[in-house]
Amino acid sequence: MHQAAKVQLHRFQTSRCHTSLLLQWICFFVFALTSTAQTNGAKEFRFPCPENEIASYTAYRVEEPIFIDGKLDEKVWDIAQPSPRFIDILTGNRAVHDTRAFLLWDDVNLYIAYKIEEPFVQAKYTNRNDPIYYDNDVEFFIAGRDAYYEFEINAFNTVYEVFFIWERAYEKGGFSVQPEFTRSKLVPFNGVGMTNHPLGGRLGHFDWSYPGKKTAVAISGTINNHTDRDRGWTVELAFPWKGLASLARAENRPLPPVNGDVWRMNFSRFNTYKEAQPANDSGGWVWTRHGIWDSHIPECFAKIRFSTKNVRHLTQKPSDPLSAEIGRWTAKMPGSARAESQPGVGSWFWIEL
After folding, report:
1. Residue 260 carries which DSSP code?
2. pLDDT for 31-80, tens place per residue?
3. Is 210 left (phi over 0), alpha (psi -120 to 50) or beta?
4. Widest CA span of the chain, in angstroms?
5. Is the separation of the CB atoms in 71 and 350 below 8 Å?
6. Could you tell me which of 80, 64, 120 has the C-alpha nearest to residue 322?
7. pLDDT score for 42
8. Rounded to whole angstroms, how far apart are CA atoms 154 and 224?
9. Strands 56-61 and 99-105
């Protein structure tokens, strides 16, 4: 989630305001209205996020293989606990379309799934690390004490990822002696909406790739065709635990986790559209409200607790209204779908025809 476009628009508008005193007053009035519109209905931001608003979730273990094809047709995904419906990142209001996240794990991988309701599925960018934050996308962050990882994906299965290191930890955390994190590969980053984080600035490796990850997207509908209505898309991800070694090192955390371990993770969805007023939709929807236009605040991330209990041993099936509907989407895919490999990513997306 980035604000480069907003900054450029602000600079353009500001330059226009210098043409005359009258225009300056007009522009000031317009800026005031815009600012009010963006924040109207938002709760006051408090750092860190209020403890009672931070989500908690238990990720259960799987003993059977999960094939990463985006379709979420393994039985374990039906049993896995769904997140609550995503809410607005600023206000905490209910989002107009349903979005849920799911987690499972085994000794090799952390598995993440998204179910995304979207009546007009669309995407533009197709190359790795294209600015897909200008598309409709879903995002995942995972934080250690000294660093965190950002992952984004759009409906074309295009991936954008960055590894961020808190600058104060670069030397003492041992990152400076790792060849993959030499200073010449890192770019200073100071947040998006919150540029005064108590831990200071970050150093971002904007060409870092999570080793061994697998990604896939399945689409129920016709992408980039607004003459019909789509049902949405699903995302399926596998992140090998060994790829988290740099995040785990500061606290000597075991990988894979042991029973009861808690990791902080963020799950979000950002859109090129907003619900009509008076909804005050910011266009950013999340599992846990941040209260500010910034995903880069680990203190607001959900608390994910890992259980060694087999997910198949859960006694109650979770309530997930979106699961049954998406199950009907993907049930039709094997006989009427095509798979395409995305060069450079080594993963798949499925489009229902």
Report:
1. T
2. 344 334 444 455 667 788 999 999 999 999 999 999 999 999 999 999 99
3. beta
4. 71
5. yes
6. 80
7. 56
8. 12
9. parallel
